[in-house]
């Protein structure tokens, strides 16, 4: 776990720094420097791009991670990398042609809703292409166990750029319309920088032939394409469908709640940058003991860390919403529902890595497609009736089913699960703290209340985890921190 702890710690700090900047953007800069309509427009464009970039990538970013370590010769690796580069380009060109031929249909579709969206439809494609190739070059770095720079680019770079652009809007250097176009430019710039970094790690000799196992690689990529599309549908479908059924500014209102809750997912995102290629290596070597150990430790440590974040969010949510404009207020139940989804995701540990690097990914894909369709139906049914709460409820139900199915598949096929007695103790501790602190508030300024209450909760939570020795890895980090402070 040494390399996991080292790079995960760096990725975690980088990701939280990025999320901190994102929080400033989401809660304050966007909310105060843009109108709700344009704020909602940005959220819609990014969500729509997230829905289609897995289609352009064709799953090759995951294919690279799965197969790279299985090839011994540089020639075979160069062939694989060449396929990784060329296949998404061909698919993107085909999609671009289809989009060009059907552009009038797209414009007519959006003319029935908010006309504000129409001039920027093409940006969805641009951002999607840039994101797909960024993920490919990020995976390029991951297979060399160099995830820190890529994680910085993924979590920090574009958020800092957007902060600067929002400030430029505020001081009148650019118009709101030009800001929208500049956001697309940020994603292109991020791709270019990541490409040069990946090539600095290894520059392949371009080959127009497939490596061995060509049919298996294509089948795997196609199925991972479905998996990526399913994951993105479950993540971003609600915001895209809100634009269809409700005023576009509601995308911004809902997006704030989603962003606040998504902070819980940060530990998982940070750890998965390194556990994903390691899981692939363990599976290729058929090391079941090492796989079980990684499964249990990743699940427990993610639960403990994300559990603290979950507590800080739901116990401070009322104070947090006092800091943002009234037009972005939302029911606390929406934040709690989405937060529970994110906590469940962390509880899975490296479950996704096991499934999508094994021979059983077909099962979860078939079920995932069904659940994506279910999520679509739930959104259609619930949003017109319950509005934003309906979108949150649809997401909660779809993810709860999806995550449970993935746990069951790994249990049935590998005869392993990530749960230990410490898992139960950690869940019980989170539940006790949730009820113990949710209704307890100070009467001072919201910022003071949040800081003081969070400090008390964090101190008591970490102290309990440490004294009861739930996780050797977390205790080791705490001990090392104490030694560092004493120097």
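^ Assign residues to that structure.
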């Amino acid at each position: 776990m040494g390399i996991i702890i080292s790079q995960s710690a760096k990725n975690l700090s980088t990701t939280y720094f990025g999320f901190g900047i994102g929080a400033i953007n989401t809660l304050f800069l966007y909310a105060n420097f843009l109108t709700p309509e344009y704020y909602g427009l940005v959220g819609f464009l990014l969500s729509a791009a997230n829905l289609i970039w897995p289609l352009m990538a064709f799953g090759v970013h995951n294919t690279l991670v799965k197969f790279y370590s299985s090839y011994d010769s540089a020639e075979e690796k160069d062939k694989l990398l060449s396929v990784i580069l060329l296949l998404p380009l061909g698919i993107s060109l085909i999609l671009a042609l289809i989009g060009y031929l059907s552009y009038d249909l797209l414009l007519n579709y959006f003319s029935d809703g908010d006309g504000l969206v129409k001039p920027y439809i093409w940006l969805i494609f641009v951002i999607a292409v840039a994101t797909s190739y960024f993920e490919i070059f990020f995976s390029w770095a991951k297979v060399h166990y160099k995830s820190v720079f890529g994680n910085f680019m993924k979590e920090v770079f574009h958020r800092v750029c957007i902060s600067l652009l929002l400030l430029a809007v505020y001081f009148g250097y650019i118009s709101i319309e030009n800001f929208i176009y500049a956001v697309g430019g940020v994603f292109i710039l991020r791709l270019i920088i990541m490409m040069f970094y990946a090539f600095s790690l290894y520059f392949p000799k371009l080959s127009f032939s497939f490596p061995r196992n060509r049919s298996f690689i294509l089948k795997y990529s196609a199925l991972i394409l479905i998996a990526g599309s399913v994951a993105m549908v479950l993540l971003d479908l609600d915001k895209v469908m809100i634009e269809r059924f409700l005023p576009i500014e509601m995308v911004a209102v809902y997006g704030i709640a989603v962003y606040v809750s998504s902070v819980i997912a940060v530990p998982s995102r940070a750890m998965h940058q390194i556990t994903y290629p390691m899981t692939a290596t363990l599976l290729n070597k058929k090391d079941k003991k090492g796989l079980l150990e990684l499964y249990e430790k990743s699940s427990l440590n993610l639960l403990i860390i994300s559990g603290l974040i979950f507590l800080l969010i739901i116990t401070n949510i009322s104070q947090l919403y006092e800091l943002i404009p009234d037009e972005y207020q939302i029911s606390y139940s929406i934040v709690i529902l989405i937060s529970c989804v994110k906590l469940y995701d962390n509880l899975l540990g490296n479950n996704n890595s096991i499934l999508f690097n094994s021979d059983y990914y077909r099962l979860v894909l078939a079920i995932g497609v069904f659940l994506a369709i279910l999520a679509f139906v739930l959104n259609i049914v619930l949003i017109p009736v319950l509005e934003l709460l309906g979108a949150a409820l649809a997401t909660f139900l779809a993810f709860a089913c999806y995550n449970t199915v993935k746990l069951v598949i790994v249990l049935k096929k590998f005869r392993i699960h990530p749960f230990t007695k410490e898992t139960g103790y950690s869940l019980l501790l989170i539940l006790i703290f949730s009820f113990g602190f949710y209704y307890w508030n100070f009467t001072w300024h919201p910022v003071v209340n949040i800081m003081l209450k969070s400090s008390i909760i964090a101190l008591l939570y970490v102290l309990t985890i440490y004294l009861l020795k739930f996780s050797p890895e977390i205790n080791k980090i705490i001990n090392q921190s104490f030694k560092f402070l004493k120097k």
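The chain has a mean pLDDT of 83.
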